[in-house]
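Note on ligand handling. Small-molecule inputs were canonicalized before submission; formal charges were left as drawn, and no protonation-state enumeration was performed. Where a ligand contained multiple stereocentres, the stereochemistry in the source SMILES was retained. For zinc ion, this procedure yielded the string shown in the input block below.
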Amino acid sequence: MTRFLWTANVLVGFSFFVSQLSFAAIDDSGLTGLVEPLRMSISSTLSPSVIEKTPLKANDLTVRPLIRKGGDVAELLHLSFISRTTCKNKSIGEEVLFQAELSNDFINVKKNGSYLVEFTGTCGSHHDLIFDSESPEGQAVMIWEVGHRAVSKFSMIDRLEFWGGPLHIEWPSGGDYYSWGTVHLTRGDHWDVVGHEMGHAIYDRANIGTFGGGQHFIDRCYTNSLALSEGWASFFSAWVSLELEDSNAQFEFMVPRRAPLGVEHVPDDVCEGPTNEWRVYTFLWDVIDHNDDGEVSQMEFQAYWDVVYNQNVRSIRQQMRLLVQSGESASGLDHIWRHNFKTTPD
Ligand SMILES: [Zn+2]
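Structure output:
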């Protein structure tokens, strides 16, 4: 905590000097509440929690990585394993070592070096690799998954170039924050917080806007910059992990005292106006979502991104003006503004 305050002071003192650098110190302690970080020392080499093997008809070897949370199982789409040999050179029942390093040109999940996930496969079998979401191996692969959801989304709209080098993610860390270009995470299974902290990094790299300093509370109002940088980070997390068509889109772990946080709806007791971060992200979500909750905008994320990229705005109001200038319907945006902030845009 002391370190955040210290860096925040330095940021104020040298803001001119550091304005060209990738830099920010964010205190998200209110976002995650009292999270119990993993206290055990975690090996850099991890293995699936459980491997379920089923025989195949041929001497083949197939793999499907899965994340298991409670009774639900979902496929991990971005974890790919490589091996030095294949079953073509082996007979049924022989073993092959597979490895997936959680580090590439885009994402690097690390503590004391990058993590490596490995397992031994058997020729002639299909392998369901099950990662329990709360286990160390489950948390590490979820960070990787959320990170690559973002990479894949930018890639699909042909907007990945800004990404630059690998985004370093330190886990497990003593807090959830973004500082000096590195994302720090307590829990990898808290997908919405992972997306939020990554959102700060993307906001920084793409020069979306200024960073506000200090502690923040999702239901209060503070400065334009703080509400924008925090709201934008949550908006990014929603874009990465939620469906634009979902009428009940919500976060799961963010701000435990108010969880689950709605992405479409803000409760009435939340501070009104554009300096509240909750309203900033529901506003932005309404600009791009495909669920009609009384608003009609369906701007494609790609079009939104092209307007806000590299504009370094200081407030959501300024970003709204850019959207209007780009040709988006002023009356439509005005309606979304009133709907979310309960105030008028000017
Ligand atoms: Zn934040």
